[in-house]
Amino acid sequence: MGSQSVQARMAMLVVGAGLCLLVAAWPLLARRRGTRGTYSWRLSVVALFCAAGFVAAFWLPARLVKPVRPPVELPPASAIGPGTAIAVTYADGTGGMGCTAGFLVRTNAGETGVLTAGHCNKPGQASKVSMNAGSDIYPTVGTFNQTVSEGARGEDHDIGLVVLDPDKVPRTSAVTGSLPVNGVAADLRIGQQLCKFGMKTGQALCGQITDITESKVVFLAGSQCGDSGGPVYLIQDDGSVAAVGIHIRGGRPNDPNPGCSIPATFSVAELVRPWLDAWGLTLAVP
After folding, report:
1. pTM given for the model
2. Backbone dihedral region of 17: left (phi > 0), alpha (psi from -120 to 50 degrees) or beta?
3. Which one of 6, 182, 246, 267 has the lowest number of neighbouring Cβ atoms within 10 Å?
């Protein structure tokens, strides 16, 4: 609501309250002037309630009604890439969730996208994705193009592809904008150190690999709800990283699916190499 319309509304409420008070006080004014007439005390009571209503209307909207905020412009320095916090708005209008962007990729059609967890979306829906900066509302930057969300057990696949809108927002292929990605990790071994970054934990956490399957890798790094979709990577000797997977869930030794009640002590990632091949994607590197 504009400042001029707010001022006009306040003036109308003040005038209305004043007229009601004048009607309520009319008997006293009439006595002082020595005039007599028919006047019901009930009218004074009604007029007082009327004045109270105008006063309440004057104060309550300013305190209780919050205007709908339009999307704000993206800060010039912001870029979407591995580790960026994202907000997903379901295409069917039933809500959404916060997740983390994974590795930057390019499609066979020349489009740029980011991998993330499939459970961040509802299968079959072209849900919109925006950058997530807490209380700020950013315009959408992309749309889900692929979603696989089979469950949260064993080899259940969990991965999604968001195709970014052309020239909508700067992109970076580096993890958190600082660790360059030089390719996909070729050979993983039990005991190797893997790292992950998620928007909820807000920092890189690393731990040893404890299990490797055809589509998953398990490693001893903590995680929380909101880290889903974030990059899982292997740090190289030269400071660059090799892409390994997309964080999909966490667990604890005695509770493999703790939900969001407590932080997990180990993480599970969906390996990216099979999906790069299946979807005809190329990992974006500097």
Report:
1. 0.71
2. alpha
3. 6
